[in-house]
Write a structure and sequence with these properties.
49% helix; 13 strands; 23 helices
């Protein structure tokens, strides 16, 4: 078990330390708490730790056995202990000819084969060699999935899509029929490919949407060749074929849903962006893998990111974190991270089943930077709760556009969170602007900023396939390290299941015409009202 003694002692002494003062106390703070890896630059010097707190966090990582756990992850051991599975998403982005094993079974040759099949199929679709039932080339893709089968490919497409794509890629996740209706509007069945992504091919929402898409295709296409418009991506290929998929692309049970974007789950993106773009993203992720495996803990980007979060949550009792990407193309990153982190580490028991005695994953939320500034940034600057912030900054977001107004806002927000503004400073500013003494006294406290609020900056020159891959892999490994320190299983998601089971029971009640015996009064009343 992790030894928290030194960590807690440092927390007690650091609780009231001001971040800005630490740059004077430790002249090497910036170099000590920043790192470059795989095209990314991370600055954690505005985090709420003194040098002693920083060192205590590193000791915590050593005590928790992060390095040994990392070796087990990359070695393909059953680190998903509740399901007896390896967790080998790094194998999906390794260079051709790698030698990964899952529970002793060699898997890299299979990964290479599936990747080659994806490339061949994507190339055929893009070139017009692969056509639909009426011989027309595909010009649109409807990607049907939910959770990790949706969020990963969706964040990739938004980040890397050209302004005028040759293939129109649309996503459907919500079981609300409106989502599918919006996706299909304006599309021609003759030129539309439907890609259904489901690990088990039993997910209720995905199958309902897939049925709707299949009916739409049936209404607009001849039966002969219609199945060419319906592709499955799954770990259960027999079920996909039985459902009507002409062709399936497989991934294995050692690929967790929220870690699966590197697999055939992103087939839609491989087609719409091109295999070369997808391969470059894999290479960027593999570069971050190499860094994570080889860098010492005190200069290891995922480890330092994880330690900053553990420090804020467990040392300073800060149960939320905001992520603000200062790049429109990364607008879905906060949603992606919500699932990655909260589904992975939102756990209440240790790996041995005993209850946790400390906080685990915080609430993760966010919006693109300047949008968020005009929404929830008010709270993170002046609210009573301290919410650590993460700024993802792209130096050049678009050709021939002046980016400095964008990234200057990111820099200013981090600076303002750290420095704040005292009541005396606010009063002086009011007087300088012409307010009399009474008015200055009345308004000064309203314009006071407590400051001493932490942030991390992640900077890249441009958002490329390589830097996107590195960024997403950084967060994956960060999440893993946190799970090791908290001694929880980051790779199951039992919390998703109970609601699904109860939803099926409620649907049986609907079919039966009313609430079943023993249903609680509130749910029974709501069911009756909605029928």
């Amino acid at each position: 078990m992790t030894d928290w003694t030194a960590f807690d002692a440092a927390a007690a002494t650091d609780a009231d330390a001001r971040i800005v003062d630490q740059f004077v106390a430790d002249p090497q703070r910036l170099s000590r708490m920043s790192v470059e890896a795989a095209g990314l630059y991370l600055d954690l010097s505005k985090q709420s730790w003194t040098r002693a707190g920083f060192e205590a966090c590193l000791d915590l990582a050593r005590s928790a056995g992060v390095e040994a756990a990392r070796a087990r992850l990359f070695g393909g051991e059953a680190i998903n202990s509740t399901e007896g599975r390896a967790v080998l998403h790094p194998a999906l982005r390794a260079a051709k000819g790698a030698d990964f094993h899952a529970l002793g079974e060699a898997v890299s040759a299979e990964v290479d084969a599936v990747r080659a099949d994806m490339t061949a199929y994507a190339t055929a679709v893009r070139s017009g060699v692969e056509t639909g039932a009426t011989g027309k080339p595909f010009r649109a893709i409807v990607h049907v999935g939910i959770g990790g089968s949706d969020l990963g490919p969706r964040v990739v497409w938004d980040a890397l899509r050209p302004l005028d794509p040759a293939i129109d890629l649309r996503f459907v996740a919500n079981i609300d029929p409106r989502d599918m209706a919006e996706a299909l509007t304006g599309l021609d069945p003759e030129t539309t490919l439907v890609v259904v992504v489901s690990k088990t091919f039993t997910t209720q929402e995905t199958l309902a949407n897939a049925e709707a898409a299949k009916a739409w295709l049936a209404a607009g296409l001849p039966e002969a060749g219609r199945d060419k418009h319906f592709i499955g991506v799954t770990a259960a290929p027999d079920k996909a074929k039985a459902f009507g998929c002409a062709r399936t692309f497989a991934f294995r049970d050692w690929v967790g849903g929220r870690y699966s974007l590197w697999s055939a789950v992103s087939l839609s993106c491989v087609i719409a962006l091109g295999p070369d773009v997808f391969d470059a993203m894999l290479a960027g992720a593999a570069a971050m893998d190499d860094h994570f495996v080889s860098a010492p803990l005190d200069k290891n980007a995922p480890v330092l990111m994880a330690l900053a979060q553990v420090w804020n949550v467990d040392a300073l009792n800060r149960p939320a974190r905001t992520v603000a990407p200062y790049a429109h193309a990364l607008r879905r990153l906060p949603s992606f991270l919500q699932q990655l982190e909260m589904e992975s580490n939102g756990k209440r028991v240790h790996r041995d089943g005993s209850p946790v005695t400390r906080q685990t994953c915080p609430v993760v939320f966010g919006e693109p930077g300047t949008n968020g500034q005009h929404a929830f940034f008010q709270q993170i600057h002046q609210g009573p709760q301290v919410v650590p912030a993460e700024f993802v900054i792209v130096a050049k977001t678009h050709a021939n556009a002046p980016e400095s107004p964008l990234w200057s806002n990111a820099l200013a927000q981090g600076q303002a969170l750290m420095l704040g503004k005292t009541t005396e400073e606010a009063r002086a500013e009011l007087k300088a602007s012409g307010a009399d003494a009474v008015e200055a006294d009345r308004l000064a406290t309203h314009k006071t900023f407590p400051g001493n609020r932490p942030s991390t900056a992640i900077v890249m020159e441009r958002l490329t396939p390589e830097t996107l891959g590195a960024l997403l892999a950084l967060y994956e490994h960060k999440t893993f390290v946190e799970g090791v320190i908290w001694d929880i299983n980051s790779f199951d998601q039992w919390g998703v299941e109970l609601g699904k089971v109860l939803a099926k029971a409620i649907l049986k009640d609907v079919a039966a015409g009313g609430p079943s015996e023993g249903l609680d009064p509130s749910t029974a009343s709501l069911l009756t009202r909605l029928m």
